TrEMBL record:
Keyword annotations of the record: ATP-binding, Cobalamin biosynthesis, Glutamine amidotransferase, Ligase, Magnesium, Nucleotide-binding
Enzyme class per UniProt: ligase
Source domain of life: Bacteria
Extra information: The a and c carboxylates of cobyrinate are activated for nucleophilic attack via formation of a phosphorylated intermediate by ATP. CbiA catalyzes first the amidation of the c-carboxylate, and then that of the a-carboxylate.
Site residues by UniProt (Increases nucleophilicity of active site Cys): H432
Name of this chain's protein: Cobyrinate a,c-diamide synthase
Pfam families in alphabetical order: CbiA (PF01656), GATase_3 (PF07685)
Catalytic activity, EC: 6.3.5.11
Molecular-function GO terms, alphabetical: ATP binding; cobyrinic acid a,c-diamide synthase activity
Pathway of action: Cofactor biosynthesis; adenosylcobalamin biosynthesis; cob(II)yrinate a,c-diamide from sirohydrochlorin (anaerobic route): step 10/10
Length: 455
């Protein structure tokens, strides 16, 4: 079994509760595995920093229900305890009309109980109505108990306990208001772990809180990494297309850090050697690489440093012009533009391969996308449909003459758009892809890289 942390809504403290549990578990035990529901990059960074193990994303839209089950089962092997952090409110799904891809969906799919986090900062007796509503809304969801977050005083706690007592719903945790316990955020969520100098102290503080605020006697049996009533057959991975090691330069620094661990694992299993390099600090590409991989991140925050590293920008430009297969997602796409205009309206030169500019703004582009390829690239075939996710506050000043994708939102009646660039052997798009359900994509990319010959 494992436990899934759900909230009544976004912002109730799911991440704080999850990190407190993980910090305390990791202090006591070595083998703790975490998971995150949905298309998230930053929360998994915090999980990994606490547990020392990569967090795994569980997203049935980007992959499939079968893949979610297989991923969960695979990564429970060899661990003692497991914890899943949910997304938004318990029943909030991708469309808003049902609970597909919600925390509840994953709880049913994996047959795991829910620990419901309630924000009690402006509640007393009403907490019982909220808790009862969540418990009764879907009888197939097992609510194992609640965590009362942001409790103000002993008197406040007494009122909450009295209100919940008739429901016979276990209170498995009580977190007092912690004004000093804050993780800074910015325009796309929490500030990533590599930028926080005080993170080790924060983890220790969370572990100390976790020792005293949770009912561990009741929680530990729920958190044990055991699988019940989940029958999944793992499909063997066909690695026949990769008969030799393929060196891929992967941008990994403060500006580029958004990668699904499963994608990196697939590349390595298929025969790739991932060679980290920094567009911020390195002046050349790694030697003897046959492909480039730029994930998302925050190039707008570090645009000045990226612009000043002229040697790195020129090296990337030369490699792409020579035909080196290159995959760039979101922030990676921005880095390949002519320039980036930051939130202060300052313009910074970038690689310059794409004939467009990325301009930061207030508008948030967010949501799942079904993308149909309009041409062949090193990753997709013309006519192929893939599910991806967009999450950015930048807009491009020019559209591609020959777009890469036709896109549609999760709602099939939604607006149709075009986006993405295909130049040389470059696949650049705002759309983040998870390859768990589409192994053909990394296989094509590596095969294309193997064929690259700069001479």
């Amino acid at each position: 079994m494992a436990l899934i942390i759900a909230g009544e809504r976004s912002g109730v403290g799911k991440t704080t509760v999850t990190l407190a549990l993980l910090s305390c578990l990791s202090r006591r035990y070595r083998r703790v595995q975490s998971f995150k529901v949905g298309p998230d990059y930053i929360d998994p960074m915090f999980h990994q920093r606490v547990t020392g193990r990569p967090c795994r994303n569980l997203d049935p839209v980007l992959t499939s229900e079968t893949y979610v089950q297989a991923c969960f089962k695979r990564h429970l092997n060899g661990v003692d305890y497991a914890l899943i952090e949910g997304v938004m409110g318990l029943f909030d799904g991708a469309s808003g009309r049902d609970d597909v891809a919600s925390t509840a969906h994953i709880a049913r799919l994996l047959n795991v109980p829910v620990l419901l986090v309630l924000d009690c900062s402006r509640l007393s007796r009403s907490v019982a109505a909220i808790a009862q509503g969540y418990c009764c809304f879907d009888q197939s969801i097992q609510v194992a108990g609640v965590v009362l977050n942001r409790v103000g005083s002993d008197r406040h706690l007494e009122l909450l306990q009295d209100a919940l007592e008739p429901l016979q719903l276990p209170i498995l945790g009580v977190l007092r208001r912690q004004d000093s316990l804050t993780i800074p955020d910015r325009h796309l969520g929490l500030v990533p772990t590599d930028e926080l100098t005080f993170l080790d102290q924060l983890i220790d503080q969370l572990a100390d809180i976790g020792e005293t605020c949770f009912n561990w006697e009741r929680l530990l049996p729920l958190l044990r990494a055991e699988i019940h009533d989940l029958t999944v057959t793992n499909q063997p991975l066909n690695t026949s297309v990769t008969q030799s090691v393929t060196r891929i330069a992967i941008a990994r620094d403060r500006a580029f850090s958004f990668y699904y661990q499963d994608n990196l694992d697939l590349l390595q299993q298929l025969g790739a050697e991932l060679v980290p390099w920094s567009p911020l600090g390195d002046t050349t590409l790694p030697e003897d690489v046959q492909g480039l991989f730029f994930g998302g991140g925050f190039p707008e925050v570090f645009a000045q440093e990226l612009a000043h590293n002229i040697e790195a920008r020129q090296a990337v430009w030369n490699a792409i012009v020579q035909g080196m297969p290159t995959y760039a997602e979101c922030g990676g796409l921005m880095y390949l533009c002519q320039q980036v205009t930051d939130f202060e309206e300052k313009c910074w030169s970038m690689v310059g391969i794409l004939p467009t500019e990325a301009v930061m703004g207030k508008r948030l582009t967010l949501g799942y996308r079904q993308a149909t390829a309009l041409q062949h690239t090193p990753l997709v075939l013309m006519g192929e449909r893939v599910w991806g996710h967009e999450f950015h506050r930048s807009q491009l000043t020019a559209s591609p003459e020959h777009p890469l994708f036709e896109t549609r939102g999760y709602d099939p009646k939604g607006k149709v758009g075009i986006e993405g660039w295909r130049m040389h052997q470059l696949h650049a798009s705002y759309i983040h892809l998870h390859w768990g359900g589409t192994v053909d994509i990394p296989q094509r990319f590596l095969k294309c890289c193997q064929q690259f010959n700069p001479n």
